[in-house]
Amino acid sequence: MDQERLLRELSEFLSIPSVSTMSAHDADVRRAAEWVAAELRRLGCQEVEFLGSDVHPVVWGVGPEVPGAPTLLIYGHYDVQPPDPLREWVSPPFEPTVRGGRIFARGAVDDKGQVFALLKAVEACGTPPVNLRFLLEGEEEYGSAVLFDLLRKQPQRTAADAVLVADMAYIAPGWPAVYNVLRGICYAEIHVRTARSDMHSGEYGGAAPNAHEALVRLLGRLKTEDGKIHVPGLYEAVRRPSRQELAAWKKLPFKEREFLKQRVGGKALTGLARYSVLERLWALPTFEIHGIVGGFTGEGAKTVIPAEATAKVSLRLVPDQKLSRVERQFATAVRKHTPKYADVSVKFLHGADPAVVKLDHPVFGILDRAFREVVGRGVVPVRAGGTIPIVPALGQRGAPVVLTGIGLPDDGLHAPNEKLDLQQLWDGIEVFKRFYELFGAEGRQ
Amino acid sequence: MDQERLLRELSEFLSIPSVSTMSAHDADVRRAAEWVAAELRRLGCQEVEFLGSDVHPVVWGVGPEVPGAPTLLIYGHYDVQPPDPLREWVSPPFEPTVRGGRIFARGAVDDKGQVFALLKAVEACGTPPVNLRFLLEGEEEYGSAVLFDLLRKQPQRTAADAVLVADMAYIAPGWPAVYNVLRGICYAEIHVRTARSDMHSGEYGGAAPNAHEALVRLLGRLKTEDGKIHVPGLYEAVRRPSRQELAAWKKLPFKEREFLKQRVGGKALTGLARYSVLERLWALPTFEIHGIVGGFTGEGAKTVIPAEATAKVSLRLVPDQKLSRVERQFATAVRKHTPKYADVSVKFLHGADPAVVKLDHPVFGILDRAFREVVGRGVVPVRAGGTIPIVPALGQRGAPVVLTGIGLPDDGLHAPNEKLDLQQLWDGIEVFKRFYELFGAEGRQ
After folding, report:
1. CATH code 3.30.1050.10 for B184-238+285-352
2. ipTM entry
3. Contact B281 A81 (CB under 8 A)
4. Which of A309, A338, B48, B267 is most buried by its number of CB atoms within 10 A?
5. pTM surpassing 0.90?
6. Looking at domain A3-182+355-442, which of 3.40.630.10, 3.30.300.180, 3.30.1370.60, 3.40.1360.10 is its CATH number?
7. What digits encode the pLDDT tens for the residues A179-191?
């Protein structure tokens, strides 16, 4: 592999700030789509199209026809999370920088770096012995609305013998993984209003209702101190993992203390203490506050009583919770817990049901072999705490969805200083190349 | 009065965005200082100096000598609060606009408009029969550090027969007021850290400590639902108003229901329900949240578990609380109420002791007469919920500090659409002119 050229090309891709959640970056998202389309054309795709949106298009590609060979649908996303807090980045998020054998940039691992590996593995094959289809979207970090709509109208796009999704990570260094459950998500904004407009805390303080105080009380009530989410009915649908699954998790290279010290870097973990940390991360719903908007947050001091405040929050969902039901339960709980002096409204920004994948198709054996041959260890079946909303739709025509990836647990996705280990990248290209070859030979059931 | 010219000049003054709490506006603060200095020179001050700071200078002026006449020190400030939330302004905060007999702009009443009235009253006198001194500062909204320092080093600047401070309001339309107590303030930032850096809520949610959750719990504990501040010892020093004072407040033109509906515009008032609203506003300490920094507050959705969060908060202090003691009490309470999994620190940005003014000096009778002659009603003695930190230092040489003003209760100071009633301005200029005249004749005790 010409690593120098590959690094140059990856840096080019990563330097496009394709932040799908911020309309100011619409042109950048489009630019990233064009970068991907050009790559697909270079790889010999006759058919390369932008589907569903001019702003955040789904890039659709059809590789050279290989008569009699199975069809593999490759999914990935070229959009990225916002980069803030900017000041915590050692090098700027959209100026990819290599330090200590890792490339640092927003999207390095989630998911541009992995999309890059999938594409460069095709290149490395020369002529892959498999019919390739590409669905590379630009809105994964914003709920995948465009792709959802596309796949509802054109479900035949998912007709394939298998779907490969490389948006995940190893469970530990040296331990590649395949994922059988992804949590769902319910993302909401809670808006509270207590007065007509912001007030002077000298003039009004002591008697006027403070929107931040109302919001703080509400948020405090939505989860108990010990980590139980205080939304009536929320846990009813939660199915505990089987005894076998829980036993298998105990054998994984995962240490709670190491998770706290190495990865979180905090004083203590939180959540429901009677469950293991992996069960909390993979098999229980969550409620998290992401940020609070309103009042005065600038430099210095402003003595204002805020009249309105908005919390950005989300819940993660697990089997067998349903997004539509959770939305209803959550909206009811919010109304119930809001102090009487405040008006409250809940706006759901996006969501996804949890996804369950059965690992009984031969493609999972092929994935295992590809990793085993290249990195010396096969894939261990695990769950993921995160969400890829589109996964159920990708499998709607019955193709098994292979959820794997080349990231490492400390890559810092969605966080400052997101990175991709270069050795993981080089290995990943080899693994995917081998996967294409094996799947081409044996992938048709 | 040439109202057209005066309005033009006032607009010029108000259009300078002299926001002292934001370093980006340093040059604007300086520009406002220069505007004030030019006015003082036009009014015949031989001595006009910038003291204490090049950035936020105190403008010092000495009016023409009037042998044998008493000396009046005039205090005001030419800096203003930040204008956000910008989108709530009907017209831009630094483009003064007259609508319905009122001028709308940041600083219209607090305090540029009132400084303007004081200066134009001098102009209206021609040659005022009083020795005037001016101390016009540029950091009132940021704790008055420069002026504090100046008056500590040069207390003789406050040598006068009386000090006039016009930074206040009528108690109701048609009811001018004189103030005998100002609350103090203790402004702090509470910073919470729970992890090394922001984390992905999918990967970490359920077990990783969330800084916003820690902060929300802490803030919720610092005040009970019914409005009692949960800081041990805080209420010990609080002296209740005398029975006479409480009885006098009952006769004021103030209706709690009207306060809620007309001024707050909310569903209900908050705070300690067993005290009257005026007692809550004037004679009890407060704890208010002004804003919460950290996590994701941009457009759209970002699924991050914040590693740090900062709350901007303040307490208002009442007689006989001491700032230094409250700071210690508050820091102790914050440490005590912070969840164990979080590191917390408290930074005090600025503060002031409460101020008490005895109304037994003849100057208060003069003020009463000036208002009575011009607007038909004398001043009613009241308290203020707000703070002017420098007041105790202004009275340090024994001069009585006259706290009054020409604002109205609904002027919206520190809020969007701050305004000054033009009739209040024209009346105010006449009142101050009459006050200078009466004080020149009778002000020497």
Report:
1. no
2. 0.89
3. no
4. A309
5. no
6. 3.40.630.10
7. 999 999 999 999 9
